[in-house]
Amino acid sequence: MPRLLEILNSAGEFLQKKGSPSPRLDAEVLLANILDMQRIELYANYDRPLDKRELDLYRQAIARRGKLEPVAYIVGHKEFFSRDFVVTSDVLIPRPDTEIIVEKVLGYLKSFNIDAPEILDLCTGSGVLAITLKLEVPNSRVVGTDICEKALKIAKINATKLDANVDFILGDLYGDLDRQFDVIVANPPYIKASEMDTLEPNVRLFEPKLALDGGSDGLDYYKRIIKESSRYLKQAGALFLEIGDDQAAKVAEIGEEAGIFAPAMVVKDLASKNRGIFLKRLK
Ligand SMILES: C[S@@+](CC[C@H](N)C(=O)[O-])C[C@H]1O[C@@H](n2cnc3c(N)ncnc32)[C@H](O)[C@@H]1O
Is the pTM above the cut of 0.70? Predict the structure, then answer.
């Protein structure tokens, strides 16, 4: 019977040939998932034989990764803000970069002493922003919206799994909402339509187009979210938007044109790239 180290080595070599940027890591994560182990436990089990069922499952997983399907879709989950979220191909895989939006919102609520905020997460997808904010700010009341029913189903599964009381509503951005919020967050689709074909294959071939395509200039969603926010944001409320690295100036300009916000503040991520825009409502 083949043993764990041998299997890992050959899976790693296979994934390298197929163009995975992290072949050994992928091989380990996929095997640990099937054996229900932490990755680190593999190292103490190099001599462990794999039975037929485990081998079959592993071969299927490695074949999928060989076609560049993201590991998160194969294992069915992804960590965000130290919590484990279910993901399927109906939702964008949450990115670590998006965590900066949560941190900025938490900092904002603290500095303005807002203890029981009403929070709206537009384009919620797997629900990571809505659920994380609800769990980090237990007195908050949080709503998440998405236009994709299948994505909302995953968001609801995550809310139940993580015990977060969030209202998920199907709708086109603000949809039928008829109330105002202290904070609105959104990580909307923001890739230019013309750049969709140039995305890495793991994104282009597997992640939902609806979660990526931001229209001809990539700004369609920002224009709508900012323009329509005056109806849904309280007088002193704040809007936190994730953006692409090259979109800060344009989104700040859209904010200025709305005429109700203080000058936009750009949020940088850990790699010092522009990652978000913060707009504070003044009137
Ligand atoms: C970039 S993903 C963000 C998912 C999640 N918030 C995150 O940060 O990982 C964008 C999401 O917007 C949703 N979406 C696209 N068009 C929408 C619309 N008009 N109204 C509401 N949601 C929309 C997609 O279904 C997708 O789930």
Answer: yes
